[in-house]
Structure formats: structure tokens, C-alpha cells
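2024-03-11 09:14:02 INFO receiving multi-entity request
2024-03-11 09:14:02 INFO entity count = two
2024-03-11 09:14:03 INFO echoing inputs for audit
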Amino acid sequence: GAGVSQSPSNKVTEKGKDVELRCDPISGHTALYWYRQSLGQGLEFLIYFQGNSAPDKSGLPSDRFSAERTGGSVSTLTIQRTQQEDSAVYLCASSFVPGQGASYEQYFGPGTRLTVT
Amino acid sequence: AQKITQTQPGMFVQEKEAVTLDCTYDTSDPSYGLFWYKQPSSGEMIFLIYQGSYDQQNATEGRYSLNFQKARKSANLVISASQLGDSAMYFCAMRPSGGSYIPTFGRGTSLIVHP
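2024-03-11 09:21:47 INFO inference complete, emitting structure
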């Protein structure tokens, strides 16, 4: 079946502009995560959506970052007034949660490479 | 708070040999899952193997096995019969089974397989 998809695959933007990154999770997965990965670094958790519950925004680095998930499916990560330090690969992942699936591993999308000039 | 430690920034192995990638963790959660992911140069994160904290046996998936030592809080990944295509970054992760399901990832280990 279809995996997690993300768009765009690459985004170059000027400092100060707003950007929107999109994630389409695997159908049936109720958990959705956004991560940021800077060059050569590990994954930095940003935000977590679980069903209809309020999202866990504890990883968002500043109030310039926001995300929403419509209809329990597609999610959009928005970065306002982008800064050069926002340049990174933004990864989306989806999964079942315990009780829904056996091992509830995360399935990752290919990522969006954001470059702020 | 959860913490994952991968102490090997880089590892080298000869093709067809076995290699162990280290992972230690710290958590106060009574129930959790441990995961390993592979990230080749293409960038996509690929799930490899899972171990539940209450699983009695070590997990195996093909050439991958997880050496789980709960008392030592370690979850090392063993790759047998290394292949050139195994060259990649490898990330260990832990996720609680209750409450917040937010995983914690280690910083990764770069594995290079030599012919």
C-alpha cells in the first residue's frame, strides 16, 4: 500500500517568508509526528498528533512554528518568518498506537529539505 | 525523561562479517518499545526491528537481531553477514507504551561496509 508522502520534496525560500510543508500519513494510522533533522544530526521531535486529542506541541522550537491535522489525516507544518537556522530536513512519520497494532513502529516519509537563503 | 545513547559515531566492517551497533537507554517508564531505524544516504528512515520491554526473547528480522539486556538497559543491533548496501546511518529509538507516545532517538551511528 501507499506509504507516507510529503510535499514538496525540496523548498528554497527567502529569509522572512512563510512556508507550508505537507504530510499524508498512511491510511488508518492515528498517530502522526513531525521531526526536524539538521545536517548530520539526529531527529528533533517537533509535534505529535494522536486521533482527536490536542496535539503535543512540546517540541516546537518557537511560536513561528505551528501545525495542524485536518480530518485526522493530512497534516501541514507551517513556519512563519523563516530564519536561516530553520534550514533542515523536515520528516513526517505515522504509526498505529499500542492496542491498534503489534509493534507500532513509525513509518517515515521521504522528508522535505528546506533551505532558507 | 527518556534518554538514548549511541556511543559509536562511526563503525567500519568488512563485507560478510557481523557488526554490533551499541545502544543504551534510560527511562522511568515501566513499559516501552525499542526500535532501530536505518537511514541511507537517500535520507528516508527505514524501520528495521522492534523489541518490547516485556518480550522474553530477543527480536530477530532476517539479518538483524536485537541483543536486549533489560537489566543493563541496552538494546544493541547486530547485523550479520554485512552487505555493501548496509552502509548507512543507524538510529536507536525508544517509545513509552503509555502516556505520551513520543519516541526519543539517539544521535545515530554511521556504518560503512568495506568490500
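2024-03-11 09:21:48 INFO post-check: Chain B touches chain A through 24 residues (CB under 8 Å).
2024-03-11 09:21:48 INFO post-check: The longest strand of chain B covers residues 88-96.
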